[in-house]
Design goal:
With 192 residues, the protein is mainly alpha-helical. The chain contains six helices and two strands; from the N terminus they run αααααββα. It has a two-stranded antiparallel sheet.
Length: 192
Amino acid sequence: MNYLNRAIARFLVKLSEKKLSERDQIYVSTVYHTISDLERIGDYSKNIMGYAKKMSSLGEQFSHLAISEIDTLESLIDDLYEKIYQAYSETDEAALEAAYEIEDQVDALTADMAESHVKRLNEGICTLDVGSEFLSMTSDSERVADHLINMGKVIRLYSRSGCGAISIPSGDGTLYTKSRFDAAWRGTACWQ
């Protein structure tokens, strides 16, 4: 992930050295911020996998209540990803608003998870070692949601630049968007 981030960032730097329209400059900036957020999501995912490996090597596991909370959190983050993907690929403001609502739910759930953990710890259902991994995993998962929302913020910036949906390269190097493909087909592409 780090290699891809650096390679794409180098390409974007070279691209930004070219004479670009204002919208193209915004697009390059949007992609740069997005790859940074994706790299951070990868880092947090790696951390979470590390917590699982550590617990496995110690023969530890979460309580059934904790697993239920984790399943709910995972489902919310999956939903958040789907909404951000939809917003990103289609410049869908409604999907972006739904993503913000899901992220608020993630924030509330992770706060509740921390409180529930303390309760389980006090009741002897959970140990300090398992609890430490649980809290770290919860925190990293909440940060994944934050970075997904950061991607949404750049979508809003880009969509307000007047160009429409996030662009994709065509075979000849021209950038087209799903929403702009028909216009490009008629010779009136957004990117000039």
